[in-house]
Amino acid sequence: DAGVIQSPRHEVTEMGQEVTLRCKPISGHNSLFWYRQTMMRGLELLIYFNNNVPIDDSGMPEDRFSAKMPNASFSTLKIQPSEPRDSAVYFCASSTQVSYGYTFGSGTRLTVV
Amino acid sequence: KNQVEQSPQSLIILEGKNCTLQCNYTVSPFSNLRWYKQDTGRGPVSLTIMTFSENTKSNGRYTATLDADTKQSSLHITASQLSDSASYICVVSARNNAGNMLTFGGGTRLMVKP
């Protein structure tokens, strides 16, 4: 099993540009989570999906952030327009509802200049 | 409000020494508690997962304890190695209708020096 796969690993973009982060969860996992990690705030949950349906997006900081999960094997987190304060590491994680196994991806380090 | 507090924030120890990291939580209803190790530039990797009825769980040189009455957990690292240098994150899961929701501690940054 390749685990949770995120792309790109690193992204550097100019302020105002659109950024799209991608995640492929572990096959068979029916929950998917997007987290943001910064030194100041640690790991924060942005949004999570259950069976491809967004359940709780209260962690999404602003309307500039949006997430989709068109099918069980793919999710995107989009920031439009990006701002320097969005610079962080964004993690995707997946799990099964009935097990306790959360698995994190390796993260995407986003730098907005 | 669900909260997880970890101490110390950072720790420096010499290779071969033991150390203990602490985690206090106020999460309800409690489902389980996990310790993760996060190497620099990598995603968190699970070390142990403990449910309400488990007091101790080991994973190699890592031993986690859980006291559900006092809502405290500890992670003990025995005979530390340089590769143990990482952030250790305590994560407590609360059960809700949609499944388990995680509350993250701020982590302890451990540095093991030769």
State the main characteristics:
heterodimer; A: 113 residues; mainly beta; 7-stranded mixed sheet; 4-stranded antiparallel sheet; globular; B: 114 residues; 5-stranded antiparallel sheet; 64% strand
Break the fold down into its secondary structure elements and pairings.
The complex is a heterodimer of chains A (113) and B (114).
Chain A: E1 5-7, E2 10-13, E3 19-24, E4 31-38, E5 42-50, E6 53-56, E7 65-71, E8 74-79, E9 88-95, E10 102-104, E11 108-112
Parallel strand pairs in A: 2-11
Antiparallel strand pairs in A: 1-3, 3-8, 4-5, 4-9, 5-6, 7-8, 9-10, 9-11
Chain B: E1 3-7, E2 10-14, E3 19-26, E4 30-38, E5 45-51, E6 56-59, E7 62-67, E8 72-77, E9 86-96, E10 99-104, E11 108-113
Parallel strand pairs in B: 2-11
Antiparallel strand pairs in B: 1-3, 3-8, 4-5, 4-9, 6-7, 7-8, 9-10, 9-11
Explained architecture:
The complex is a heterodimer of chains A (113) and B (114). With 113 residues, chain A is mostly beta strands. Chain A has strands at residues 5-7, 10-13, 19-24, 31-38, 42-50, 53-56, 65-71, 74-79, 88-95, 102-104, 108-112. Chain A is globular and about 35 Å long. The N and C termini of chain A lie far apart (36 Å). The relative contact order of chain A is 0.33. The mean pLDDT of chain A is 91. Chain B is mainly β and 114 residues long. In chain B, the strands form 2 sheets. In chain B, strands 2, 4, 5, 9, 10 and 11 form a 6-stranded mixed β-sheet that branches. Classes of the chains: A mainly beta (113), B mainly beta (114). The A-B interface holds A 4, 31, 33, 42-45, 48, 50, 55-56, 91, 93, 95, 97, 100-107, 109 and B 31-32, 34, 36, 41-46, 49, 51, 89, 93, 98-102, 104-107.
